[in-house]
Amino acid sequence: MKKVIFATSNEGKMREIREILKDLEIELLSLKEAGLDLEIEENGTTFEENAIIKAKYVMELTGEIVLADDSGLEVDYMDKAPGVYSARFLGEDTSYDIKNQYIIDKLAAAKDEERTARFVCVIAAAFPNDGIVTRRADIEGVIAKEIVGENGFGYDPIFFVNEYNCTTAQLDPEQKNAISHRGKALNAMKEVIKEYL
Ligand code: ITT
After folding, report:
1. Is 82 in the pocket of ligand 1 (CB under 6 A)?
2. 112 catalytically annotated
3. How many Å separate Cα 10 from the centre of its chain?
4. DSSP for residue 129
5. Which one, 8, 104, 141, 180, has the greatest CB density within 10 A?
6. Is 133 in the pocket of ligand 1 (CB under 6 A)?
């Protein structure tokens, strides 16, 4: 079976990625499982740039097929912040209870129609001697007025999806993967990967 490394240290992402890619006939390894302890500097200004930086770096280091995910939350009322800085927003080690409450407070004066937001995900795949491919997807929602839900990770407890009348932290993992930015981008990337197997 072909080995594929997923260049992420985020366990929440990795759980979702494993589930979404489970039908591919590959040996899927996280950075940790590949024995790599890396701090990759994400100095790009777009999701595409950062996803490519991560995938390319690990592909060049290992010679394996490498995937990477760069994702984030764009809040329209905050001029699309935190965006590519979502993981670093208010400090990498600050808890998501604090980050999420901060965003709710920032929107205290926002009208309902001004609470729009989206999760964006870009998946990059770096193939040894064969270039780099990216796929992008998003999911639209609104910022909730309180923190609700235990599932998912990161900003899920404040990301309210009107169609489901709940936050993505209240969805089952399968439901979230079926509609999420990550689910859609990875499903599109699956078709690309199949060509290389
Ligand atoms: P890696 O670079 O190691 O993959 P990271 O967490 O640093 O992990 P990013 O730079 O792509 O990854 O930041 C993505 C951040 O966006 C993530 O830490 C969350 O705060 C947020 N995010 C992305 N997808 C999310 C989702 O599905 N649910 C909740 N928050 C999400």
Report:
1. no
2. no
3. 9
4. T
5. 180
6. no
At 93 the three-state DSSP class reads coil
**Nearest residue (CA) to ligand 1, atom 17:** 87
Query: Measuring from atom 7 of ligand 1, which residue has the nearest CA?
Result: 87
Q: How many CB atoms lie within 10 A of CB 130?
A: 11
Q: Tell me how long the chain is.
A: 197
Domain assignment of residue 53, given as a range: 2-196
- Cβ pair 57, 40 in contact under 8 A: yes
CB of 85 within 8 A of CB of 103?
no
In 3-state terms, what secondary structure has residue 166?
Answer: strand
Ligand 1, residue 40: give the atom nearest the CA.
2
State the residue for tokens 């998501």: 96
CATH number of domain containing 11:
3.90.950.10
CA distance between the termini of the chain: 9
3-state SS record for 1-25: CEEEEECCCCHHHHHHHHHHCCCCC
- Digit-coded pLDDT (tens) for 163-183: 999 999 999 999 999 999 999
The number of domains in the chain is: 1
